[in-house]
Design brief:
three-stranded antiparallel sheet, mainly beta, single chain, about 70 residues, three-stranded mixed sheet, about 5% helix
């Protein structure tokens, strides 16, 4: 049985260089699950590409952009 994978809604990487998390190469993400719409925080390895929702178990892909967003339309 495979695990459901969706794109996370508005994943935000909280990157405060002065925190202890960055010293041990961890990062905190604030995001909304793309399946059940539950808002949660996740802490994990800096280079990881997904976070698992605690409410429904769905794997959410973490895709973010650095810099200004491109205009829509």
């Amino acid at each position: 049985m495979s695990r459901l994978t969706v794109d996370a809604i508005n994943p935000v990487l909280v990157d405060r260089w002065s925190t202890l998390l960055w010293a041990v190469r961890l990062a905190r993400w604030d995001l909304t699950c793309g399946f059940c719409r539950t808002r949660f925080r996740s802490v994990g390895w800096v280079a990881r590409s997904s976070a698992i929702c605690r409410a429904c178990g769905t794997r959410n892909l973490l895709q973010y952009r650095r810099g200004p967003a491109e205009p829509v339309g």
